[in-house]
Amino acid sequence: MSTTKKQPSYTARELEEETGFDRRTIAYYVQEGLLPRVGRRGPRTRYPRLVRDRLLFIRRVREAEEVGEVTAVSLSDMRKVFERVPPALIAKVADGGIAVTPELVERTSTRFRLPAMRRAMLEERVRSRDHMEPPSELQFMAAPRPPSDPGWAEVREAREMPREVARPEEDDHDVDESETAAMELADALGQLQDRARRRERRSSRPLDTWTRVAVTPEIELSVRGVTDEDRGLLERVRGAMMRLLGMS
């Protein structure tokens, strides 16, 4: 006799506490398509583990950006990562079981099939099979079970998750284009500032190199203490400012 393991769920407050993102940011990520919509909001609304895993995944990616392990990942690229990488692997990264690597967040469609990542996917499937002996990795790869098999329960559940989701409590307004651009700008500028400050602390002398970012022929942004590694963030800043000015 098999039993179905109930998947954990989280309140908006629990998501804030576990991931470090406030409700406004979570609502912004829902609006940007990074998180699923789960229904009408309310004080008893609970969010599936997929929401928690994706938020922690974003956190891990931002941390990897800060130490130079990966280049800056835009929100549109992050959305593509969620579209192509299996939920089981997102969860592994979220929990620290797999490190964030360039191969994971680059736009190529098959890079996630690295040995360690493939192994994580197989382990996740094996753990979901609670009523029969788990097959070896080679057996599993040679003779995969059909989608109706219990080993595919988690994958099936992720695919069948409702698309209409409540925004987190207290965030029932629509985030318009200008507000989205403003939040994107604030996020990118905050990351640039943090990186510049860390470089200055590590440097034996003040960083006096300034980089100019042309937004329009009349507007330029000057940033101190950035390097070529920050090119992606600078482009995010420029793009967000142009959207705020109604030029893209």
Number of beta-strand segments: 4
Shape: globular
Low-confidence stretches: 108-118, 128-145, 149-175
What is the CA-based Rg, rounded? 21 Å
Task: Note the beta-strand portion.
Answer: 5-15%
Structural class of the secondary structure composition? mainly alpha
Shape-level CATH architecture of the largest domain: Orthogonal Bundle
What sequence of helices (H) and strands (E) makes up the elements?
Answer: EHHEHHHHHHHHEEH
Biggest β-sheet strands, sense, barrel: 2 strands, antiparallel
> What share of residues is helical?
40-55%
Question: How far is the first residue's CA from the last residue's CA?
Answer: 58 Å
- Here the CATH topology of the largest domain equals Multidrug-efflux Transporter Regulator, Chain: A, Domain 2
The CATH class of the largest domain is Mainly Alpha
Trace the largest sheet across and list its strands: 1-2
Mean pLDDT: 72
Estimate nothing, just give the exact number of structural domains.
2
What count of helical segments does DSSP give? Answer: 11
